[in-house]
Design a protein that fits this description.
The chain is mainly beta. The chain has one domain: Porin, CATH 2.40.160. 0% of the residues lie in helices and 60% in strands. It has an eight-stranded antiparallel barrel with strand order 1-2-3-4-5-6-7-8. The chain is globular. The mean pLDDT is 84.
Length: 110
């Protein structure tokens, strides 16, 4: 299990938020937590649909309103940190909104 954190302005939201990612690469599970809840939700599970070892992962958040459904694609930088792209489901006009994200690896508190 690894933990990452960074700031992001998710597509479909009105403000930036601190995002925390808990990822189990081999178990293909992810949990996204936001410091500022959106649509009444502050934590969303994700199911990894593709992984390349522990270097790259793609997952979709689930169990949330469609407006806040996002695809997350991450890969490791030269360090253990993650660089990625978050893609929102198409809006009412059929436009796919995206935002880049950088998450720094953090130690898990005991």
């Amino acid at each position: 299990m690894e933990f990452f954190q960074g700031e992001v302005h998710l597509p479909g939201t009105n403000h930036p938020s601190v995002v925390s990612l808990e990822i189990d690469w081999l178990g293909k599970q992810a949990t996204v937590s936001l410091s500022k809840p959106e649509g009444g939700f502050s934590e969303w599970p994700g199911l990894l649909v593709q992984t390349i070892g522990v270097e790259e992962a793609v997952f979709r958040t689930r169990g949330i309103p469609p407006r806040f459904t996002h695809w997350w694609h991450f890969s490791r930088s030269g360090s253990d940190d993650l660089w990625g792209l978050i893609i929102a489901a198409p809006d009412n006009h059929g436009d796919w909104q995206t935002c880049p994200v950088f998450l720094r690896k953090i130690p898990k508190e005991a």
